Each structure stands twice: as structure tokens, then as C-alpha cells.
Amino acid sequence: MDLLADRPVVHPTRIDAVVWRGRQLTIHVRGHRWWASPYEDRHSEGAISLVFNGLEDGRLFTDELQPDDDEALESFEVLPVSDVPWAQASQWSIYSSGPIAEPLVLFSKVHDYLHQTQALFGADRFLNQATDLSRFVATVQSSGALVGQGPTPIRDLICTELERQRVPHNVVQTVPDMEARYLVRLGDSAFLCQEAFADLPD
Fold it and tell me: Cα torsion for 178, 180, 181, 186, to the nearest 10°?
């Protein structure tokens, strides 16, 4: 993250290889030596490895990793999770004490927020039983159920909608697991990880 802030990517930059071992992903890059100095000769090539340890949830679209793409890092960025509200640890659980009359409205509120913020996850990540809409509807139209879990913005979305629908509910704070420290984006690919660094050549 510090390297990218100090040395913006300059093309041509190509991805030579992607190596995935356990919870480590390494992207080997070749091209203009933008990481060395902004004044490097554009015709001198070098190599650098981008290493991501402690991989968490994410997605990697392999069709975007084309060896002849000389602008492969055009949309590459590394962000601290503290700057990405939806990516923070789930520390809130919301329980209803009555049926939700319009469950699909609640689902759409969460879905639209995640889409607008380019989140990695869908609503099913945060809403109980929402991998199957009919099951989600049946669950939250019961007399009481866990509606969802998530970080503060998800909690606020769910609670605001439950209040609008006048559904009695309770909010419980939970102790989250260790959260990822970084969100990495590369094109449409994105993932969370504990550590991100550049392995610079000698």
C-alpha cells in the first residue's frame, strides 16, 4: 500500500505468473520498473512479485490474467479494511421478535447497498438463510428469528428497515473473529488478506 502511494503504476506492466500456495497468493509482474523510480527508462524492464498472505474470502477471475495485456495493473489497488465499511468484521446480530411483512424489501436494501459499494459479497453473506430466497422469506416471516449479522452499516440497514416495517427486534453485539487487514482489487477480481507486500528484486 505504501509502495503504490509512493510509486504509481506505469505501463507497460504484464502479469507473468500467478502462484497460489495454501493461503498465499503471489502475482509475478514484469515490465517498466515503476517501483524503482518515477524517472526510470521506459525501455528498461524489471520484475517484481506482489505477495498476499493470509487470504480470506474473495474471487479471482482467471480470464483477466492475460499474458499479452501490458496494462495488467491498470485497476490494481490495496486498501485497508478500516476504510471499507462492508468488509469489516461482523460484530452485530439482529433478531426479530415478530414476522417481517416485506422480507424482499429488506433483502433488496442490503443487496443494493452491497452492489453500490462494489462489495465482494452478496446479501446472502449477511442475511440469515438468504442463499435461498424462499427459505429466507420463510425464516423471517416466523414469529422470531435471527435476521442477519454484519458490520455496522449492515446492522443500520437492517434495523432501519425493521423499524420502517414496525417489526420488534433486538441487536446483540458479538466478538468478531480476527478480521482481514486489506482489500485487494485487480480488475473485477478482489479478495481480503492479512498481509500485502511487494517482493522487490535485488
Answer: 180
pLDDT digits (tens, 9 = 90+) for 18-55: 999 999 999 999 998 888 877 767 677 899 999 999 99
The one-letter amino acid code at 39 reads: Y
Q: Can you tell me the distance from the alpha carbon of 196 to that of 53, in angstroms, rounded to the nearest whole number? A: 6
- How far is it, in rounded angstroms, from Cα 108 to Cα 114? 10
Q: What is the pTM of this model?
A: 0.85
For 59-113, what is the HEC assignment?
ECCHHHCCCCCCECCCCCEEEEHHHCHHHCCCCEEEEECCCCCCHHHHHHHHHHH
Over range 97-104, report the average pLDDT: 97
Q: In terms of DSSP H, where are the helices of the chain?
A: 2-6, 103-116, 133-140, 152-164
> Which band of pLDDT confidence, cut at 50, 70 and 90, is reported for residue 97?
very high
Position 177 scores a pLDDT of: 66
What residue type is 138 in one-letter code? A
Burial-class residue 12 by CB neighbours within 10 Å (0-12, 13-18, 19+).
Answer: middle
Q: What pLDDT digit, counting tens, does each position of 69-86 carry?
A: 889 998 999 999 999 999
Structural contact between residues 201 and 48, judged by C-beta atoms closer than 8 angstroms: yes
CB–CB of 97/165 below 8 Å? no
